[in-house]
Amino acid sequence: MDQLYGYGLYLVSLLTMGGIFAVVALGLNVQWGFAGLFNAGIAGFFGIGAYTAAILTTAPSAKNLGGYEMPYVVGFLAAMGISGIIAYFVGKICLRLRSDYLAIATIGIAEIARLIFKGETWATNGPRGIAEVPKPFETWPEPWNQLAFLALVLSFVAVIYWLVERARRSPWGRVMTAIRENETAVKAAGKNVETFRMEGFVIGCMIMALGGALMAHYLKFVDPNTADPLLGTFLIWVMLIVGGSANNKGAILGAFLIWTIWSASEILTSRLPAELAIKTAYIRIFLIGLALQFFLQRYPQGILPERRPAVQGDDNRSQKPK
Amino acid sequence: MAEFINFYVIPGFILGSIYALGAIGITLTFGILRFANFAHGEIMTLGVYFTWSLIQLTDLHPLVVMPVAMVLTIMVSLGIDKMFYKPLRAAPVIMLVIASFGMMLMVRSLIQFFWNVQLKTVNPGISMPIIIDDWLRIAPKHIWIILGAVILMFGVHYLLAYTKIGKAMRAMSDSPELARLTGIDTEKVVRTTWIIGAGLACAAGVFLAIDTQVETQMGFRLLLPMFGAAILGGVGRPYGAMVGGLVIGLAEELSTYHWIGDAALLNPSYKQGVAFAIMVLILLWRPSGLFKGKVF
What we know:
Helix content of chain B: over 70%
Largest interface: A-B, 40 and 44 residues
Strand content of chain A: under 5%
Strand content of chain B: under 5%
Order of helices and strands of chain B: HHHHEEHHHHHHH
Low-confidence stretches of chain A: 314-318
Structural class of chain B: mainly alpha
Helix content of chain A: over 70%
Strand order of the largest sheet of chain B: 1-2
Radius of gyration of chain B: 19 Å
Order of helices and strands of chain A: HHHHHEHHHHEHHH
Oligomer: heterodimer
Low-confidence stretches of chain B: none
């Protein structure tokens, strides 16, 4: 019975983390799936969200900036706001140019964010990170606190899914798809391509920051590794590409699937002798990378391919892209 | 003044020539294959680890075994191109960027698997700096690095300016369609691009390893300055990348000099931000770079 309970708790934590990644993957889907923008600094925006929420909601501490004890909602909103503002400036510089430049600039932003988290000890407590971030429902008895937090995360996933799915089906979403497919034609139709791209980029980064804020509350802790520039960004990309770019259900499916594989393989390899366990961690990264390459070459559309919304008056028949 | 030259200008030049060598590969791939290759830094790291292993085997000076390591790195790079980039060449270019982003993680995890993450060194021992005219101090390893970089840069210049394949590369960088129409073997040009890029990346990495030490993140740390150098010089412009690399290397070192008062102008831990700031400024002011490169 105890063992079963343990499995149950593991399942809950798996779903909670999967849900947080699903939020971030939905954010990336707005950028990449809708607008075709390459964000290589997901971890940076995620980290900005995590630190903002942590600093605003924690109790006073001598080690870091903070002690505002703000309500959770303020933390979430501020995380999204700050991330959105930074995204706006990055977008201003790079969105005129091809996606490669955005990729380079976002990876730069992520690196600098990490340097700041590490270096500005007065605000972030440096490499030791901010501890005792409050967690919603944490006073409830075990397992109900975990279940309630899971419910909170899943409701975030549901609400964001509903919002971005509506956006995708709206005229705004159609223009986005059109820009991705044929920019010149959209310009000819009189749409301001740069504004649409900017909207997609900023909204995506705000959703990513929300994911980061959720993670800070869930783990009750943030440190510069929360914004690990490679692994975080990379995993989210694999989730979206494998799940299906431009398909919101695909983004969610990919997030849960890849996180399950990632986490389960960690449990398997952790049973090996210590030295071997460290080595196999690298092999796991390699294999996930190989999976990404496989999907890019063989199934670039992912498990759930994009489905175009039906044209008005032509309901229930969605067109598949060529 | 002596302090300024010895501890800021000379290290700036060393770092700059390392960036320059790395950035040549980035700018050539960007110009000819038309994508930003994120795995370039990891190729550099791989070259360093090949060199380290060869030193363990033969006990020779790093610069002696470096050519062998360059050949090995080039072979890996060509293999990666064949297996992972070539199948995507017909797809939208951004797919190649994603593939190279994944490749960055894959190469690094393999390096960590085979060589583990402990710090290593390729230096045979500590050598005393040479003192010229009582104030100018330069370490022998720095002379080697600058000499090596200058020789390699002249090699690139000769190849691009005087050989048939070099002209074909410049043609393809200017206009791939026209190049193909005139009967240039584009696959051969692509191969040569990888050969030059990987060879120079390996050399740049080894120079950095001689100057500092060997660790698995060294290539990734150079990625931003190298992109910065390539964009500053103008995408597709190898000479621009050389100038860009030197400018960024010098700017990074000089930014930590105590220009005003006694404290460093910029906290050295933010040195990496200098390359980024230069890149942002050039993108705002003149996206084609100093040498009128391409803008996509």
